[in-house]
Structure to design on (282 residues):
């Protein structure tokens, strides 16, 4: 079986580590992968990603060849105007519409690229523009498709109900996410298509436990993007309350990058917690 995976950046870039683990396991199961990221950087950050490079194709979100192909397609293929109409009609605000229109040329380009590659299924990670690309590609080629929803992409609601209609299934990583999705699309629609499959990592068959002396400080580690959904500010407030109660034998580390980096740093400084909370990045 040959599957196209549409990602945001994987196997390039620093994010989506959890998707790496999933795709590597899919490969171990003997499934042939073709990985097409939406807007990949040129760096490979995770060493595990090197194993997937031969299964991936790198090209930018847009280039001259894609733009010309897009313009020709609009002039010669009337059904593309129907897809464009769907994007305009169901993108629920101007920003989401702009994002969806931005990936339309690449979605069309991918469809042309994979037509003769014997692809049996298309799967997108994230319900935002990666799923928009998969939706467009599937509509053009007729290849079945599906997508995985995480957290922020459910809240964003980028055409989720419209995308669910033609999809074969939708994978969600938690029951909480499933409930959030049903609040958006309605409990009477497409429940049979929704499957909760948690994210995971490969666990060694045996783990050697070593006795350690009691650490001087209790260590808290938070590996997560620095975005609102992750709730770092609440952990900062909790650490502040511990200090107020005289509990100081702890250290907290935020491993991650994101748009809230400076805001969280300022909050840590404001609460005078810079000796207790560190932000090493990735």
């Amino acid at each position: 079986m040959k599957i196209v995976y549409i990602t945001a950046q994987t196997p390039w870039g620093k994010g989506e580590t959890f998707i790496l683990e999933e795709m590597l396991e899919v490969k171990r199961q003997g499934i042939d992968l073709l990985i097409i990221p939406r807007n990949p950087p040129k760096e490979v950050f995770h060493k595990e990603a090197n194993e997937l490079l031969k299964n991936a194709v790198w090209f930018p979100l847009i280039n001259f060849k894609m733009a010309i192909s897009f313009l020709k397609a609009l002039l010669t293929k009337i059904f593309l105007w129907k897809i464009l109409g769907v994007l305009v009609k169901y993108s629920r605000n101007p920003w989401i519409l702009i994002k969806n229109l931005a990936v339309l040329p690449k979605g069309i380009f991918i469809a042309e690229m994979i037509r003769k590659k014997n692809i049996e299924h298309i799967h997108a990670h994230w319900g935002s523009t990666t799923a928009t690309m998969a939706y467009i590609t599937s509509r053009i080629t007729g290849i079945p498709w599906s997508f995985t929803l995480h957290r922020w992409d459910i809240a964003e609601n980028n055409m989720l109900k419209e995308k669910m209609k033609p999809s074969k299934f939708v994978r969600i990583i938690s029951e909480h996410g499933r409930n959030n999705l049903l609040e958006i699309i309605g409990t009477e629609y497409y429940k049979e298509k929704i499957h909760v499959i948690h994210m995971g990592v490969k666990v060694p068959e045996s783990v050697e436990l070593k006795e350690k002396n009691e650490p001087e400080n209790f260590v808290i580690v938070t590996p997560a993007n620095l975005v609102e959904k992750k709730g770092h500010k609440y952990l900062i407030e909790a650490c502040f309350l511990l200090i107020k109660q005289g509990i100081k034998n702890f250290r907290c580390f935020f491993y991650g990058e994101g748009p809230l980096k400076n805001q969280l740093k300022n909050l840590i400084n404001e609460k005078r917690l810079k000796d207790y909370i560190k932000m090493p990045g990735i």
